[in-house]
Structures are given as structure tokens and as C-alpha cells.
Predict the structure.
Amino acid sequence: MSGLSLKNVSKHFGMLEVIHDLSLDIADGEFAVFLGPSGCGKSTLLRMVAGLEPLSGGEIHIGGKRIDALAPGDRGVAMVFQHYALYPHMTVRQNVAFGLRNIGTKSDEIARKIAAAAGTLEIAHLLDRKPAQLSGGQRQRVAIARAIVKQPDIFLFDEPLSNLDAALRSRTRIELARLHHRLRATMVFVTHDQVEAMTMATRIVVMNQGRIEQVGAPMEIYLQPATRFVASFIGSPAMNFLAATPTGDANGRIMVRLADGTTVATAIPAAALPASGPFTLGVRAEHVLPGAGSPARVDVVERLGERTLVHALANDGSTIVYDEPGDVAPAIGDHIQLTIDPAHVHLFDAAGRAYHADRIA
Amino acid sequence: MSGAASSGIGRPSWANLLFVLPYMLVLAVLLIAPVGLGMWLSFQDYDMLGGWAGGVGFENFTNLLNDRIFLGTVRNTVIFVVLTTPAFIVIGLFLALSLNDRTRRSSALRSIFFGASVLSVTIVTLVWRLVYLPDRGLLADTLAIVGLHGLDPVVSETYALPAIAVVTVWWIIGLPMTLFLAALQQIPAEIYEAAALDRTSRWRTLLFITLPSIRRTVVMVAVLEIILQFQLFGQALLITGGGPNNRSRPMVQFIYEAGFRDLQLGFAAAASQILFALMLLAALAQMWLGRRQDGAS
């Protein structure tokens, strides 16, 4: 089977360490997404798997076989590049066939594989064109076709959707998910776009500054972010963060007081929390409820169509974002009252570590 | 929307002519007029001492085509172009491929290879005279070590022209190398990475990725070198003086001698027209070949 296993992998460029002692296992058939901001090391990590970047330390195994000393072409991986990297002077057919010719595949088998891939990706009518005659989306399909015909153990995608327009990006997302389902191949996808990660991944690897912050299924990461970084990076709008001071517990659940004086009786077990230190309360927009509660004033209203985001200023000056369905939102300057749903709040300690309520089914 | 229609964009305006006028004037006075004058001269009997003796039709040309020395210079010049142009492409490309990295060693070598290009022809030929010096030159000394004696290229009918070709390539290999380096650096690194993932051998990478990517530069270098090397003059004049037995005499030297030594301007102008036609033909053929490959691949 063709799972991917990274063991204590590290990478430095001179004095600058970009990957710190990273270990990760990706099972056969998984669609793993490396997600993180620019410069977090996700692309470097992918390029290390591909063999385009040497390791400074550690091991990489594919299907149980150590591959980090092998040449890129001998690793059983195929890569789709951000800028497609098609050979500009070759036709689509030649582009797709090139890798197969290099390993001495017979012409009739090449033709058969190209026909199959062209059918899957609907590029049969483009086979005799050059890359310059294709649109961005078509080039993307050719790049994927070039990867598919090699029947690799692992597909690597390096931000392949970032050059497409919004409509094409969402369509390609769906097609990639469909392709993964059909091929049942192991895929590793790098992106800084949390929507891409949430919609396609079977498992998301959230990275920050060369380290893994959290590995988990999309909803697991959304509902129970392991750190404040993950909580702020996943979800749109970003989670609200408010300074909170513990005031005791009720039935073993911690109670906190916010800067504006509001007390929130959370569902987080008090025993899990460290004894002291500053805390931050995190709550997503959908768990801030308008109606009765602490007073606030509407500052900005963002209408997204199916819902409206309202940015409100609490008494202490902190901003809280909540959402309203449709277009039933207050006007800027309106005085409103907000309640935080205590069952869905998270607490973060000074180091950014998260504490959650027990999972609600 | 009359505003957009009358904005003047896309319509010719005589005021624009003012901007190109200075250049056009210089071009007309220093290039177009002399070329026209040269063409006119080639059909005249014009002697610098005797003055103009009227038109002679194609007589200068028929005289040239019956002049064995002139035909010899045509042959020499064509051989010289055939010797040097492929060498400029192959060696220039080889150097560019070898030195296309960011190491200090490559950067130093690039400077050294380009360095010779800034030397004047007199210095270059002086240096190579020392190499080619019969019996005592570097070449003679080196060959003597392996037991070869008496191979003195500058006095050999067979080796005089190749010896000048070697000097020329050594002298100005820097330009093709630099042009190839610039072209190589335009190839995106991602394409080589894709090729590496496609298990492309080094040889196939050169053949199927690098060369097709710089094909236009190869054509450009070829055309440039054909035009430049057809104008061979200084090296031949200073190393061999055109000898021995006219075997290294190039067309430009013939034109120079006919015009400025023998003062036969009409005759020299006719020879110039033939040189011009040869250069034009060779450059057009090269460009046509390049374009045909463009369409075929």
C-alpha cells in the first residue's frame, strides 16, 4: 500500500530552520491537505517528498519503502505545480506522453493511457494544442492528466488552484474531490486557502512556522482547534477572541468574566485548566447570539447574501463578530445586546493551547 | 460618445513624425544614402585618381566573376563562416550550460570568457602571433613535445584560415555565451523539476527541454554570427596578410585593397554588393530554417 510516512524530518536553509523535526503518517488513499500561511514550510515539505528539495534530517517512506535518497522520478510520486510547468513547446499529447516515453512505455500503451486520462479530464479535443493555446483551467487539467498517466503511488499538488479565478477554482475543487474518490489514490495537497482544505481533505495538517499545529478531519479541526493559531486560521469569519479571567467553577465547569464584566458559565471542565495565567475566550460568529445579554453597538455590517456578518463593539471596546441569516441585520450605530453560547466557547492559555467543552454529539 | 471617437488614439498624426525625424535623418544620411551610392557606384567606372568615367553596366560584376583572386576570397570567406558559426553556437552553448549557476567559480569563468571580447583586434592578433610564431611560438613548442615539427599554421595554405577561425572564436565567444546564458535563465525552474519527476535523463533534458526552449536564441546567434563573420578583415590582415598564396584572404580585404590601395571604387563597390547579397542570403536562409522548425514542432 502507498501511505506516506515522514519521520523526524527537518530542513534548514543555512542558519534558517524552516521545518522542525516533523513526523506525520498519511494513510493509503487519504486526501491530506497541508494548510498554513505563506512561509509556514508546507510547500517546502511537499517538495521534500517530491525530491526537489533535499532533507536536512529525518526519513521519508512511501508504501513502507524509504525514498528520501532516491531521485524525484524514482519515488513513485507525480506532482501538479502551481504554475502547471507544462513543456511549452510540446503539444498536450506530447506533454502527457513525455514521462511515459522516458521510461520506455510502448506506443500503443501510451496512446491507451492518454485516451483514458483525456476522457477522465475532458481534454480529448485539446490533445494537439500547445499549452499557450489553452486557458488556465485547461492547462490545469493537462497538468493533472500528466500526473494521472504515470499511475503514481502518491499525487502531490502544490497550490494548483491559486491561479484560477474564483468560479473555476470552486469547480476544480469539486472535480479534484471526485477524482480522488474515483482513483482512491493517496493525495497530498498544499494550500493556504482554508476553504480548499475544508472541502477536499479527508485530513488537514495545519502548519505554522515549520511545525504541525494540528492534524485532524476538517470538522474536528473546526470544532476543536488544538491551538489559538488553528482557531484563528480555520473558519470565516475568524473566531472572536476576548480576554477572560476565571472566576471559579459551577458543577466542575469553569466560569470566566470578560473585560466588559459579563460572566460566561462555560462547558469546559475546570480540572483541565492550568491553575492560573491569562486566558483568552474564543467563540465563533455563529455562536454569538443577538437578543438579550451584554450591550454592544453595531460598527460594520457585511452582507454576504445568504447571511450577514455584523461587527459589534462591546462596552470595553473589543470587537465581536456574529452572523445573522439573510439580510435581517441592524444598521450601523444601533445598540444591540449579545449573548455568547456557553456550550461552544473555547479557552486558550498564554501559550495558545486550547481547552474545549466535552464533545457535544 | 463623440469624446472617445475623437480622442485621436489609433489615428496617424503628423506631429508624431517629429519624434522619429532625428533618427530618420541620421539613418538617411549615414546608411541609406551610402548604400544607395554604393549600389550606383558598382555600375560605374570610378577611379579615385582618374575620376568618373561613366556607367559601365554590369562590367564590374563580370570582371569580378572572372577574377580568380576574388572568387578565392569568396570561397575563403564562406569557409570561414562555415568554420566559425557552428563553433560559436556549439562552444557558446557548451560554456553557457556549464557556467549557468550561481557559484563564484562560474561567475569568475564567465568574466574571463567574456573578457577577451573587450580586447581590440590588434591586441588579440598580437597575442596569437606569439602562439603561432613559427618554430618558437607556443603552438610550435607544444607540438614539439609530442614530436610534431614544422606545422606552422600561418604559413600553411591548409591551416592559415582555420588558425584565424580559432583566434576569432577565442576572441568573441563571450557574446554567444552571454546570449545563451540569458536565454537559459529565462527557462522556468519548474519545467526542469517537472522533467525530473518525469524521469528525464540529462541527455533527454538537454534535447527535449533546454534546446527547444532556447531555439530562438540559437537562430539569433547564428544570424548574428553569419553577418559578423562574413565581415572578417582585421584578424586576417594582421595574422597572415591574406596569405599564403591568398588562401586566407577574405572578401573585405579584397574590397579594401581594390578601393583604397588600387583606388578602383566602382570595382570595390561591386564586390561589396556581392558580399552584401551573400550575407543577406545566408541570414535569410537561417531565419527561414528557424521559422520552419517553429512551425514543425
Notes: Residues 166-183 of chain A form the longest helix (18 residues). The two ends of chain A are 34 Å apart (CA to CA).
